[in-house]
Amino acid sequence: MRILILSDLHGNIWALRAILEAAGRVDAVLFAGDAVNYGPSPRGVLSWLRRAGAVAVRGNHDHAASFGADPKASPRKARLAQALLDWTREALREEDLAYLRSLPLYAVWAGDDGVRFALIHGSLQDPLYDYRLDPEVGEEALLEAAETLRAEVVIFGHTHLPFVRAIGGKLFVNPGSAGQPLDGDPRASFALYEGGRVTLHRVAYPMEELFRALEGLPLPPEEMGELLELYRKAR
């Protein structure tokens, strides 16, 4: 099987289109959460996830938008996240909110070849908000984060930092952020699974089109500048 692994699209339909073109034909889509907030096209992203039949879990921004909760974004992004959350809620229809509410906090899915994939946005101990699982995290923390999951491939999101590590007979994967990378590379990030291997990929997308749409969002000039800089620098 050829499987597209995504996370953290954050309403960026332009990045999604570039990923789909670069990835080509796939047999399944696995999504590790945060379809919405920050970006100007939350409905477009959600519509595609439903059409694609993606196996998806709920991220902290999905949870905040659909349940009216605090997204508990990282300190440097908290003000932007909260400022855009009200707009995101208003932009979504009830069917979108119902879809987000229906997403589980974790999921285990088996492909046609019998390989099992577990998806969690943060960690099993803290599915929505755990930021510990970055590329530098120790093996013990990764194993603990997925200790009760019976899966050969364990997929995380949330940190926007891509990695693939093999530990204890499992593959641990963060595909990075498709829609808002934070590792210094502004290109959209994704992963592909095929033949027992996971590979990380990057693809450029038309950021100026994203910026034109972002500039239509109801943000004060200072915060809009911060948002655009976040996408430009990917930091």
TrEMBL record:
Enzyme class: hydrolase
Molecular-function annotations in GO: metal ion binding; phosphatase activity
Cellular component GO terms, alphabetical: cytoplasm
Pfam entry (one): Metallophos_2
Start and end residues of each Calcineurin-like phosphoesterase domain: 1-193
Protein EC: 3.1.4.-
Cofactor: a divalent metal cation
Key words, A-Z: Metal-binding
N-terminal signal peptide: none
Annotated NCBIfam families: yfcE (TIGR00040)
Family indicated by similarity: Belongs to the metallophosphoesterase superfamily. YfcE family.
Protein name per its UniProtKB record: Phosphoesterase
Source species of the chain: Thermus scotoductus
